[in-house]
Amino acid sequence: RSLIFMACAIALFCALATYMKMFGFGNLKTVAIVSTVFGALLYQTIMDSTWESYVSSDVSDEVSKADTAFTTFGADSSIARIFPPIIGCMVILIIGISWQGMAVACAGMIKSLHPGCGSLVNQGKWIPVDGCNEATRGFAYRKYGIVNFATCSPAGSAYTWGWDSAPSSSHCRFTQRTQEMLQKSLSHNRILFVGDSMTRNLYHAVSRQIGISDAGLYDAGGPKHIDLYRKGGGIDLDFKWAALATDQLSQLKELNQLATEEDHSSYDVVVMGGSAWDRLHVYETKDQIDSHSDTMNAVKAEMIVMINAGVPVIWMTPTTINDPALNSPEKRERLTEASMEDMRQVYEKLGIPSSASFVLDGPSFSKDRVRESYDGVHYPQDVYDAGAQILANSFDWLVPETTEAEEFNVLEPGTMARPFLGLMMLCLCFISLFFFDGFFGFSYLACLFVKGLLPSDLYHEAFTILHEASDLPDVSTGMTTASFSPESKKDKKSSDIQLSNQGVRRRAPPVNDSYEPGIDDEIEALLANPPAPPQR
């Protein structure tokens, strides 16, 4: 029977734990309260059902030390009944403190990602987001005065990029990197992007992530195949137009030369991408294909040299091509998705991705949005923003945190001055002085409750006795020579008589002429309730 009761009690507590977890009450405080209350009830139930039989049983044959300790207090002793629950509460308290200590001490802060996360950071997908839920509607009404939405599914939809769930043992927790986070981690770094228009769009996306909001705005009349230079948040972002493999090789040789000379203009990270222009313009004959392979082998060698020099090189594979949107016969013939997949395989065989410090997989963040590619090659800005976030997470293990302190600029005197506020403070001081109000006008509120009372009356009441006790000029007459004359002392005595008639008593000064009012006299005068004079 005892085993059945134990099994039922354990099942009850398991069911209670499941219920608490289901409704979100599985915190330490709730567990402690429930364990204490239900444990006390369980203990009382057992005691009520077994105590009488235990007391009446014959325990003379074999008595344990614990039984002896309880029987010494008597069968009905409150100590014998309360002592076990107290011990149980102490055990729960110790376990809870240990649990909390382990949770705080053993669970460290979320650290930077490690190189092993490189195989997982490209794994994710675009998912539709319902922008017409009640929370969004309420925010739109409060913020912008919008009542109803028009482009909800299926008439319209929005998407957001998200990473696939990574095993907890991998310690790879990918998160969105905000502008503040990127400016802090990449401060004083110089990042170079080398490649074609796909790489340039990624360059614009990274620029937007660090706070340059106008990066990548559409400008049909502006120059296209040019170099770009930007600076934001203490980060230098440069782009070098190098659409062909030969152009990329020239850029890498120049960068390696700067690194060899320890030039201060060298870069901390290099992001490269290409192959689309090579496939479109110089990949038809066997000689062109062989020349391209030789050039890419030289590019790989230069990449290895740069990585050995301490500069990470990131390779971006081309994004997915939208064949129906290609806007020229030449592109529809040579730049299809099948052709670009062949180029990806060629670069894989040449060892370009394996030689890079990290590979940003273009199709991983573009294949789900391929129908939105308006010209077959390029995508809306938010698609490249996803690629920029993948790249930003990879910076955790590619770009070491800088320890260079921010330059401290000493402000010139008066830079933080506010003349208007200073004048306002002077006005408040003058109001306090000339209107006898030390509370900046708030003491006039007393006039609402006490008729005929002015701040000047409060001033006189507070300082008259103090001035008289310290032999200072009368506050009503000011600092005059007459206040120090013998007549003023007579007036002082008469004022003492008046104060006495008003109920403010003073201790009689000693006969000695050397008497001077002390702090006790001031306190008694202010309190207006001195101790009664001794009885004669």
Tell me about this structure.
This protein is of the alpha/beta class and 536 residues long. It contains 18 helices and 8 strands. A 6-stranded mixed beta sheet has the order 4-5-3-6-7-8, with helices on both faces. Strands 1-2 form a two-stranded antiparallel ribbon. Strand 4 and strand 5 form a beta hairpin. Helix 7 (197-209) packs across helix 14 (381-398), helix 8 packs parallel to helix 10 (286-308) and helix 16 packs antiparallel against helix 18.
What's the SSE blueprint?
Elements: H1 2-22, H2 28-56, H3 65-71, H4 78-106, E1 124-129, H5 134-144, E2 158-163, H6 179-185, E3 190-195, H7 197-209, E4 228-232, E5 235-241, H8 245-260, E6 269-273, H9 276-281, H10 286-308, E7 313-316, H11 329-334, H12 337-350, H13 352-355, E8 358-360, H14 381-398, H15 419-434, H16 455-469, H17 486-501, H18 519-527
Helix pairs in contact: 2-4, 7-14, 8-10, 16-18
State the helix count. Answer: 18
Q: Would you count the extended β strands for me? A: 8
Through-space gap between termini: 89 Å
* Sheet/helix structural class: alpha/beta
Mean pLDDT over all positions:
80
- Low-pLDDT residue spans: 479-490, 499-512
Fraction of residues in H or I helices: 40-55%
